[in-house]
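User: I'm curious whether this sequence folds into something compact or stays loose and floppy. Could you predict its structure so I can see for myself?
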Amino acid sequence: MATTQPPAKANATAKARTKARAKAPRAPRESVFAERFAVFAECLLTGVWIALASLPLVTYPAAFAAGARHLRRRTAHEAGGSREFVADFRAAVRGGWIVGLAGWAVAIAVWVDVQAVRAGIPGGPLVGAVGLFALIAGAVAGLRAAAAWEPGSAWRELLAEAGRRTVLDPAGSFLLVGGLAVVTSSAWLIAPLAVPVLGAVAAAAVAVEERYRRR
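Assistant: Here's the prediction. I'll summarize afterward.
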């Protein structure tokens, strides 16, 4: 027959266990500053990965998609490193290279518009302004689509939804425009500085999409 401990003895045993847990050494917690600095350093490293993956020129949408997914894992405290980045890049580049090619086509068209403005062609300034606005809006929509990419996602659907969010969330879109301006300025002043900043732009896109999702 099982025996039960008297109430007094049971209480004493429970108190002893509580004291033992209190005296047990706790794992040191990472400070807020250290955690934020680690995220910042991860953004810079991700920028280098994105730059390397974008070297084929038409792969930059897939590179940003893989970088954004890596940063989402980092902020969610999930494991993941260069191998996961490469796997995501390979999955995203299957349809992403077409998006990259279309982006270059738009950029060339805008460049032609700018040349028309410089040549003094009638109506050139208006056409140039419209083309430049379309290029910026397309870049923002592309960043938002890359930030929302998941394995198996269709780029056409991602871009359509990102285009709507670009219009419906002007504050977030302007934030990304500022990020693109920082990259452009960095490349203009010190070209190598633009490489790690790409990771910060990807992180900004992730933050903008998360902010919109929680609205």
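Summary: The radius of gyration is 25 Å. The first helix runs from residue 7 to 23.
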